[in-house]
Amino acid sequence: MRAVRVRFLLNNAGETSWVLDPRETYLALSGTDERIAALAPTTAGAPPSSVRAEPGSQPSVDLFFPLPPGAAKARDVPRFEVVWHLQTDQGLIERRTTFDRHTVEQPPEDDDRWQRYGL
Predict the structure, then answer these.
(1) Is residue 53 part of a domain?
(2) Most-buried pick from 21, 23, 33, 45 (CB within 10 A)?
């Protein structure tokens, strides 16, 4: 299955536990109302029920979002948002993180300005 992978790093420097629920996390495609649910590498391909970040811990979780119809590779999805929820002692936090795909141009081979930096 082709998918977009998003890694969450939960750096909990607080004094209480945080909980990320992957079942409440989705990918929203730019310019559409389409929402794609997250999958995680667990038994049966279902996301774990929750990821707990204890105080002082830094757990990570990889979530996978199947590519939408018409997208053969992840690069065919130029812009998207990941909508996620984090339960803290302050309540439920909902955030959207936007991802834009950019093409990085390589300098011409005859451009020697970068040689002094070893590039």
Answers:
(1) yes
(2) 21
What is the per-residue burial (b if ≥16 Cβ within 10 Å, else e) of 18-36?
Answer: bebbbebbbbbbeeeeeeb
- Is 60 among the domain residues? yes
Residue 63: count of CB within 10 angstroms of its CB? 25
Alpha carbon separation from 83 to 36, 42, 95, 104, 112 (Å, rounded): 10, 21, 6, 26, 43
Question: What are the pLDDT digits (tens) for 25-68?
Answer: 999 987 778 889 888 665 455 556 788 999 999 998 889 998 88
What CATH number does the domain containing 83 carry? Answer: 2.60.40.10
Number of domains forming the structure of the chain:
1
pTM of the predicted model, to two decimals? 0.72
Task: Identify residue 51 by its one-letter amino acid code.
Answer: V
In a domain, 114, yes or no: no
